[in-house]
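Re: your question about Sulfurtransferase-like selenium metabolism protein YedF

S., sorry for the slow reply, the queue was backed up all week. Below is exactly what I fed in.
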Amino acid sequence: MIHTIDCKGLKCPQPVINTKKYFDSIKEGEALIIVDNEVAKNNICKFAQSNGYKYKAVDSEGLFNINITKEDCHCEIMKFDKKLVIVVGTDKLGEGEEVLGANLMKSYMYALSESDDMPSDIIFLNSGVKLTTKGSSVIDSLEELKNKGVNITSCGTCLDFYNLKDDLLIGDISNMYTIVETMNKSDNTIKL
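Result:
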């Protein structure tokens, strides 16, 4: 029996995350994923391809039906234990429209919290500290990341500058020396 995952009307990255959650929960099987936009279809196809699953997408009256099959390959995926640090220097992702940037940051943090590969640390600097304080739209995602063992720190000088130290909701307050040490000891640092 084919499992159906109805993702019509869902915004990116939710269709891929729903698909991933299902396939993570089974050893082998097949699912029909239904989406209503080409971007979601393409992202789900890329997910299937990157995981070695068989897939076929069909356009049907404005909807996209994607059949994905996961076979039990009796193989073990090797994971490398690397220390990844993400430095968030702004409360928005990318340049341009502020509303879009805020939505992209929220989407990024949610997708990161659903990822299999977790960073060891997320460091918030400059206006990025606003994401760890009252009024932040990403607190739930940060809570999930923290629950999965990710160290979350905010720059104390930055919190003071924005007068947000008393509004901190998640993580620890850090200083530049500790931030530099954390970044220097990482195998890879990503700056947002």
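Strands lie at 3-6, 29-35, 54-60, 63-70, 84-88, 121-124, 151-155, 172-174, 188-191. Residues 86 and 92 are 14 Å apart (CA to CA).

Happy to talk it through on Thursday.
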